[in-house]
Structure formats: structure tokens, C-alpha cells
Amino acid sequence: MLSNIALPMFDDNYLWLLVSPQKSVIAIDVGDYALLINYLQAHQLTLTTVLITHRHHDHTNGLAELRATHPQIPVYGHHSIAHITHTLAGGEILNIKDFGRFLVLDTKGHTQYHLAYYHLQQKLLYCGDSLFSGGCGRIFPDGSAENAYHSLQKISLLPQETQVCGSHEYTLDNLAFAQHIEPNNQALTVYQQHCQQLRQQNLATLPSTLRTEKRINPFLRCHLLGARVADLTQQPVLTPIQTFCTLRRYKGQWNA
Ligand SMILES: [Zn+2]
Q1: How far is the CA of 129 from the centre of ligand 1 (A)?
Q2: Rounded to two decimals, what is the model's pTM?
Q3: Given the DSSP bridges, would you call strands 46-51 and 24-28 parallel, antiparallel or unpaired?
Q4: Which domain holds residue 164?
């Protein structure tokens, strides 16, 4: 059995680690080199593989130092990112010693290139900034809301019990917006109370499950929300992809 660990990093990031019974470790993204290395030393763990989701600094800042000090460790990710040793495009299966198989998913949208890593046996999805609990990553100038919609559609085909390991603790803010969109969603209200209790104890709300996200995350519920989003934004009734793109823009304004 593998252990899945979320290390709090910066203000509201998580650095995810997957730890094998042999005490080897896969790090998903390396935003903070010192945080990672100190944790490994304190727990007598050996880093053997790095998986990178996307180019943003809070996911890659520690890579140069890691490559300089641990040149033997393979770093998987998109070729557009510096310090990648093994390039991926999405669609590959990685078989990693001590850990088994990962399906690599192309989940672009937040940025032009974005990968997610799905551990097939333990149903763990490391989705970077493509999916958060209650929300999804905002669309950067090089990204595309249409692509983000298709990426979330792809993720939603994974098993319901998939554990969603997003890279930010944005859950309570996301759920406040979700409540604004779906004030009568009972599952959302119950989940929001649950997450508030977790945060009061300084505990992570992640991982979530895909089952939960489909009940509470408006960005996975666009097929149900066309009329509501049209009403809120004074648009004609919207298709699911139009609903997603409009909702994503609307959330940007709502947060501002
Ligand atoms: Zn990002």
C-alpha cells in the first residue's frame, strides 16, 4: 500500500508525495526544493521520481536545484518545461518501480500545456491546477477555457472513487462561489460544513473524491447549470461548454 501525503507549501499550495513501502518517493511538482529535501531527510525517505504537471513557478521553482543536486532522478513532464528529463504529451502509461502504473492525462486549459497523473491501482489523481475541490484553475493567457472544459470532461470519466489531489487549498473560497451558483444544492451545504470543520483544525480538505466533486463542483456540473448561469450573466441559454466558459469568466469577476 502506498501512502499519499500532502505537504503544505507557501500560502495555500500542496506538494504531493507518494511513498512506497520501500521508502522510495515520487514527488508531484517541486515548488519548494528545501521543503521537499527536509521532509525526505526527516523521514528517511529516498526520492526516486518527479512528475511535473505544468510550468507555473509554484510547481517548478525547485527543479533547477533538484537537478543540480540529484542529477540521477528522472523528471517527467511536458517538453516545454525546463529541466524535464523524460518528456510526455498525455496518453502514456508510466510504470514506475515500487509504485506501479500511472496513466498520463493531457489536461490543458489552465495553461497551454498541463498534465495530470492517475495512479491506476490506488485511483489517485494528481491534477495540478486543472481541478480543485469545488473549483478549477483559472485560465491563463496561454490557456483556453474550451480546453479546460474538455480536460475536466476527460477527468470525469475516471472512476467515482478517484481521489482528487489538486495543488491548492482553495476549497472554502471555491465553495462560497459554488453556493452562489447553486444555493439549493444540499450536498454542497453539507460538504461546505465538513470542509469548514477541517480548516478550523488546520487540516487539508484534499484529497476529495470525483464522486463528491460531481455533486458539488459547478465546473463539473455545467450540463445542469446552463439556465442558472445564463440567468446570472444575462446570456441566452447556454450549452455545457458555453456554460463552463461563462462560469469561469464570471468566477474571475466574482473574486475580483
Ligand atoms: Zn498553475
Answers
A1: 5
A2: 0.97
A3: parallel
A4: 3-170
